[in-house]
Amino acid sequence: MMNKSLVSHYPMSEDAFAISEQEAVFRLKTGKEGISAVYFCYGDTAFKGNPVIFTKLLMNKIASDLYKDYYEVHVTEPYLRMVYYFEIIDENQQSYYYYADHFYDSISIDRNDLYKLPYLRKEDIAKVPSWLSKSTVYNIFPDSFATRKNYISKSASEVFYRGLSCKSKLGGTLKGITENLDYIQNLGFNTVYLNPIFTAGEYHKYDLIDYYTIDPNFGTNEDFLTLVNEVHKRNMKIVIDGVFNHSGWNFFAFKDVLKNQKDSIYRDWFYRLDFPIYSPDNYDDIPPYACFGYERHMPKLNTSNETVIAYFIGVVRYWTEKYHIDGWRLDVADEVDMNFWRAIRKAIKSVNPNCAIIGEVWQNAHAFLDGSMFDSVMNYDFRKHSIEFFANQHVTAHVFDSRISTLRMRYQSQFNFAQFNLLDSHDVPRFLSLCKNNLSIYKLAVVCLFTQQGVPMILYGDEQGLTGIKEDDYRQAMVFNNNHELFEFYQQISAIRASHKALMTGSYQTVHASEDHGLYVYKRADEIEEITVILNHANETSNITSFTQGNVIIQEGLSHGEIAPYGFAIFHKKLRKE
Fold it and tell me: 204: part of which helix (H) or strand (E)?
């Protein structure tokens, strides 16, 4: 029996949106039982007659989770104003009409009673830079990566900037990154994402002193310009970190507050000041101002303040316009005023509409992905579910697929292809360590990472088998070794993704997700080709003859129609000539 309480649709959301002026997408969520078909019925809101003449389209079930099915339809050449409803056919072939969030036995002749896409305005269509979906991202923690070609000094240092201490722990520099761009490109990556590089106190550079200069431990502004130019010579992209939620306590505005207290002209630049303001000496002391977490070195900025907004508009324009960066990754994005992000987006896009904006949001980022703020977010939920399935083996393939399906249905489709999917970052234990250094299981997760909808991102050294549970370990110094087993593996899997457009922007179809163990099979496809991915995350051999179509392009453990425990295979099938 159909469970009516599980049926839902929200107009002007991820359930109803345009991807261009020529195409709109509509979705309906339902329960998993009692439904034989769902139809989308639409007409022109401005139709001169009455009743409106409707066109009826069969919707496709494109995803399922443990509780719901997701139906979708693409409407080409949509009306500028659309009125619509859903017809749901139950298992007994009984029709139900769903509109205005309720079920009805018939269709109202008053078009104002139905769902509407009020007006398909091109300004409201979320636009994501097209290069994002084609990217493979190599994330560099600058202090830990390289001092020069194939070398990092592992030497701590302290440099003074205008009398203020700036520390380094391992000796990484921008010149070191520049001299190793060929290494990164040879590995198969076309985008470099750098954690903070502006002048700051600690080695991590999240306690900003000066937003307009490169940290002297890393080099100079000229070194950065050279890096950007060398990146672009290789047809690569570069994304840098923007830390605007908080500054460091040696930032000029906060220093003025410390000096002048309530009389400071910058007192409104910071959040929840409880005068008198001072900088606590002890780590455990709670400071008299809001900060990042309870980190006393990082006072929280008041990002709703118009002067603060204007200051950071200047910052993003400076680096985007003068240095031609390709993207900003925005730190602690979900703790910042949304109107701040809207203003920052306008400033960045006014300089370069193709400059990407990626927010650091660890949970559901629905509120930030409406086209007015970010183009993408860091997809930590993908990592969370991958830990449960691959590393911890706490859930079956069926549960993992359910959770991945929910992620795909969270956002408008153009955002799905731009998500920064990750297993590792500078903030979390290395995934290989979570897999207890089991390379076979780790490879399964990496194959999944590179064949999902979204942008695969790895952390420097993943290709060298770097491990670490604690911060000092997972941020350890880079190792350069082109002979490591994982180096070649990353070369292969990144080359496969780069060679197949279906893996960048194709549809996603679950073929098989075992309910009692880890066999997981899914397809990525477009009008040209079909890619079948088979992951056997189980300690037993599985017969996969019913899933194999086309030619094998990479495999481990495949033999005579069977795949060994913790083996994988990717098949390619040509659908038609390009």
Answer: none
| Active-site residue, selected from the candidate residues 44, 360, 375, 463 | 360
Residue 497 lies in a domain: no
How many domains, the chain?
4
Q: Angle 338-351/306-323 helices, nearest 10 degrees?
A: 30
Residue 335 CB neighbour total at 10 angstroms? 16
Strand 115-117 to 68-76 pairing = unpaired
The answer on 291 and 312 residing in a single domain is no
**What secondary structure, in 3-state letters, does 99-141 show?**
ECCEEECCCCCCHHHCEEECCCCHHHCCCCCCCHHHCCEEEEC
Which residue range(s) make up the domain with 195? 136-244+305-481
The sign of the torsion formed by the CA atoms of 431, 426, 492, 354 equals: positive
Q: Phi first, then psi: what are they for 163, rounded to 5°? A: 85, 0
How far is residue 217's CA from residue 172's CA, in Å, rounded to a whole number? 8
- What pLDDT score does 349 carry? 98
Nearest to 489 by CA among 507, 518, 464, 471: 464
Mapping DSSP onto H, E and C, the string for 29-80 reads EEECCCEEEEEEEEEECCCCCCCCCCEEEECEEEEECCCEEEEEEEEECCCC
Residue 65 designated active-site = no
Output the domain CATH number for residue 565: 2.60.40.1180
Is 331 an active-site residue?
yes
Tens of pLDDT, residues 91-142? 999 999 999 999 999 999 999 999 999 999 999 999 999 999 999 999 999 9
CA–CA separation, 19 and 126 (whole Å):
7
Judgement on whether residues 250 and 240 belong to the same structural domain of the protein: no
Same domain, 293 and 318: no
Regarding whether 313 and 296 lie in a shared domain, the answer is no
Dihedral sign computed on CA atoms, order 212, 215, 219, 224: negative
Looking at the structure, tell me whether residues 378 and 230 fall in a common domain: yes
- CA 420/CA 136 separation, integer angstroms: 9
Name the packing angle between helices 485-499 and 439-451 (round to 10°): 20
**Nearest Cα to 535, choosing from 552, 505, 553, 557?**
557
User: What value does the CA radius of gyration of the chain take, rounded to a whole number of Å?
Assistant: 26
Structure-block tokens of residue 187: 């590995």
Residues in the chain with pLDDT < 50? none
Write down the catalytic residue from 331, 334, 370, 375: 331
Domain co-membership, 350 together with 473: yes
Neighbours of 338 (CB within 10 A): 16
Q: Does one domain contain both 96 and 113?
A: yes
In a domain, 488, yes or no: no
Tell me which of 302, 321, 339 is where a domain ends: 302
Which of 281, 302, 323 is the last residue in one of the domains?
302
**pLDDT on residue 481:** 84
CATH of the domain at 114: 2.60.40.10
